[in-house]
Fold these 4 entries.
Entry 1:
Amino acid sequence: MRKLAPVLRDLLAAGEPAALVTIAGARGSTPRELGTRMLVTPERFFGTIGGGRLEYDAIGEARRMLVEGGSHLLREVPLGPALGQCCGGHATVLIERARPDHLDALDALDAGGPGFLLTRLDRAAPTMLLEGRVAAGREAPPAGFERAVERLLEGAGRPERVTHPDGSSWLIEPTMDDAPEVFVFGAGHVGRALAAALQPLPCRMRLFDHRPELLRELPEGCNASLTEHPTDRVLEARPQAFFLVMTPSHDVDCDICEAVLRRGDFAFLGLIGSSTKRARFEKRWRAKGIAEASIRRLVCPIGLPGIGGKEPAVIAASTAAQLLQAFEQTPHPVPWAERRV
């Protein structure tokens, strides 16, 4: 996914006016989820809040704000016949003139570290960053706000829109990134094509190889690392990570897969190759005492069944689609909510 923080940093440095558009409420069927953002300038836009009439109107209102000098607009949008959309849900759209504190907020979301963003919705106010219970912004949160954060920690860990007893309305967002983590081992033809396919998808990809010349041929912004010891990298992954193994060495492939299987807490392990390659690897692992239940979790060959093309781009597209299916099947926290503090 394209990150908005570098875009806003360039816009602010160039003095180009911009508006930050945020989905600040989402009930029922909506094009995008709570906390989705885009940037709008007089001539361009970056990101998407879902397209269609909702986004078209939001872009128009953001551009009017930039021309007329406003700074804050909150719209309640029923996604029904009046809007020419039949989603049937309800979206709240926050439009703000972009400020330096927005850059701090977007940087925090991109970094994916622990903390919370607090965005006031009912009036213009600086976005606050809470690291633990300490507000890093210029405005103190209202009394009792920490209790709402505690409940968020105990609950879904997803963005929430809350209404405080004092009447103020807020969007609370954990900055910790819960996007699926994908470790790709091998930057050959398929590995590089897969990096390009995964780059715009909702995941955090890391690519590893021992050949520096191949890592220079990757898409801009790809998180790639040079490594001579790929099995050590397996230990860096968070629980429920996704692994794809496609190095130029069958022995290295076998060792990486074995390291993943021994961890046991992976969500997906895919190996490029044939059924014959799989059978040979399984024989080695059984001889080393790897549990049969773990071995059966290996996906090899990779890619969706029925797609037989062997071109790198075809394998990458098929594997990326397979990963998207696996993302959906991996347990997630309960959906976003709106409730009172």
Entry 2:
Amino acid sequence: MCATCGCSDDAGVRIVDLRNADGHAHSHADGHAHSHGDGHPHTHPGGDTHTHVHPDPGTETLTLETRILAKNDELASRNREWLAARGVRAVNLMSSPGSGKTTLLERTVTALGRTVPICVIEGDQETTFDADRIAAAGAPVLQVNTGSGCHLDATMVAEALHQLDPHDGLVLIENVGNLVCPALFDLGEQARVVIMSVTEGADKPLKYPHIFGAASLVVVNKIDLLPYVDFDLDRFTHDVGLVNRRAHIVTLSATRGDGLDEWLHWLAPLHVRSHTAG
């Protein structure tokens, strides 16, 4: 049981490689990531998340939460180093379900895929629906099904990275739809993007400040629907600034393509840096 959010452990995690014709999943029952002689980041099973009985249950929970996050951060650091050594940059896309992440990824793969090496890690509790769409768009993709888990973590991403084996370019990670838990878990990414659709309401930055506070970029999607919904863009922009003065805001319609160039221009420098790293 994950003390940070109450979701289950990695026992139900499955990774499905859409590059295999038979859809065979290469996964481990314990969600354990390990190296295969290629210097890939790895973890070792042990008692580092074991808790001891304490008189105060609150102390026990806090101790477990601290250990879980510390272990995750250590592996995320290894992921980041491994990616940097290969000239790869990872972007973690976070949002509520239905914000348009997958549609934006489809557009991105179509627009950049011929000039920028792109592979995708898809996170969902069940199904390969989103991964199927990305595969159809032409990008190598892995689906990580988390079971009852409500976020990706560095262990899951490490295993997916080993299977994708990227060299150069971008790894785009579509996290599980959730505005809470994904903010807590570093995956080894270079940048975090929060995607909001105008149908969700302008109050989300103050209701979910942690995820907006961690964002490098905030994308406001489905702007083609602005005439039909009650969404105050000025209020939203102001409130993002209250929790994160550094975040850049891009408005677009992934469906129609409005504003897509600004998103692609923001993403492109990440690829340029991958050529100059080291």
Entry 3:
Amino acid sequence: MPKAPVEFSLPSIPEAVSDATSLQFFARRAVEGTLSGLHRSGLFGSSIEFAEHKLYSPGDDLRHVDWKVYARADKFYLKRFEEETNLRAYLALDASASMNFGSIGYTKFNYAVVLAATLAYLFIQQQDLVALMRFGEGEPLYLPPRGRMPHFQVLSEILEDSTPSGRFGLVEALGMLRERIHKKGMVIAISDFLTSVDRISQMAKIYRVGQHDVYWIQILDPAELEFPFSDWSRFRGLEGEPDIETDARQVKRSYQREVERWVGEIRDTALEHQIKYRTVRTNEPIAQILASLAS
């Protein structure tokens, strides 16, 4: 009889973030189980870029002749290329107090930590370089881009030890990160994007100047989108805002319209600036998110 297939179970989101070992295991299994067989995508970094033209010399490979230049100059010029073997990926992780909200047994930050670790593992497996900027309380923590598994282990331990607090802004953090990027790279912001759309638009323009590949992953709890409250309730501000008491039934429709408008404006801003955008609910499987980003 044929052997039964071996089944691997991933830890839950809270279990994965409870210690670095579980986090590393989750990331490895999610990457290996999701990306096998997928075609090359923007998340895969090895590339070849045009560098300059070179006048043909006997023995050169004619496959690299630039025929458009030959038509103008009546001379053979070859394209010379520069291989970039390492993509530099920069993960910007929101650890502000608003990420501490959760209605399904874990928080937006729990989910974001596991997603960040999974993406970091993906890049390191490709022999790319990955950096981390975690921002929230006080000065943002920055881990410079490195490859290899020891770097991933350090990154995982930082994520596992992180607690969401404070209100250091997304736009300020992305501005600080931009100053540290000295060549073309990939920037992945993982946040709930609870900030002014106008300010986000300003930052998007700055990143486009450098021709970086930018991803915005907006992490939202299902309750933030669906507003499943039906009684007189008190809503507590997580970043210093005053508490609000109201009849949830009376404000539900207006709340949902406002959230839909706000999310739509962020999405439209991303499209305007050629930024890849994805809204993620914290009840979506991590592997599903990874596959959608890599496809």
Entry 4:
Amino acid sequence: MLTYQGRNRATVNYLKALYFDSPEWTPCRVSLMPATWMKYREDLEEIVLAHPRIFPGYAKGTQDFDAIPSPLYEAGEHTDCWGIVWNNIEQGLDSIPVVHPLADWAALAGYTPPDPEIDAQFGPRDWDAAADALAQAKARGDIASAGLPHGFVYMLLYYLRGFENFMIDVANHDPRLDQVIAFIDHYNLNATRRFLALGAEMMSYGEDLGIQHGLPISPADWRRWIKPSYSRLFGLARERDLPVRLHTDGYILDIIPDLIECGVTLLNPQFRPNGLDGIREMTSGKLAIDLDLDRQLFPFATPSEIHDHIGEAHEALYRPEGGLMFYAECEPDLTLAQIEAVCSGLEATCRPPLKD
């Protein structure tokens, strides 16, 4: 368990929410996608400056409006270290895989998986820079967090094989999947061990396990093919009593107990496919929730409806002892008024203080 000593006020509150230790307020965060910054630029910055409770410490001119967080957000094609070719038709939004290096099983015999020293998106890992970033986070009183690229087991399997091929593999219980999973585990486990050795205090992972109304593969198949990798990977942090955060889009209610068994301590599920009743029933008091508010509502809602949505979610999931956080992602399909409503709604409901 991470201690509170030496942490800033916001981090102590975050940890209290994570550990069900009566936080002062509900932690909340607004993520502005690169394409959203590119679209609105200074007008968006004015909203950020108007909400220092949501964006503490932001100073005018801090944001590069055209910044790209990784090559996958750059328009055009990009080949990652796994040999997957990505295509991006919208600068500032994510790419989709269009060439799958193991689409033909015949390619498996000559396939060389990447070295864990290579980051899937950025090339050779700069471990000195990673160590510095972790140390600086601790010096600020923040949590020194690290993680792997989005799509680290389940999604990586269908990035490599192609989605339809992978679905057929699962249905046929194709034993060749075990060899590919072994490649993936070697990469993930070694990279995670290195982050932990450098002082990471929390590991964060993300991939989209669900679709709108269910799981693409059965819970039994998920337990056969994916759960063992999750258990091995998350166990590296959990054996040190460090927290594990997992983001996943789509419906996941059927496997939340499995995610808890694997070691997830903070789950970032989506509101719309899972519903408040399902999330409350499956998680209440069992693990902390960083709720992904309804991105499918935001583009069509009035400011009042956005405020109501945030309030409804808080009322349904809030427990005085903690276990609740809110996350809101603002894509470029939102208007400035809607983004403003997300920020003001979170301020009114979660009541974050001004930074000390």
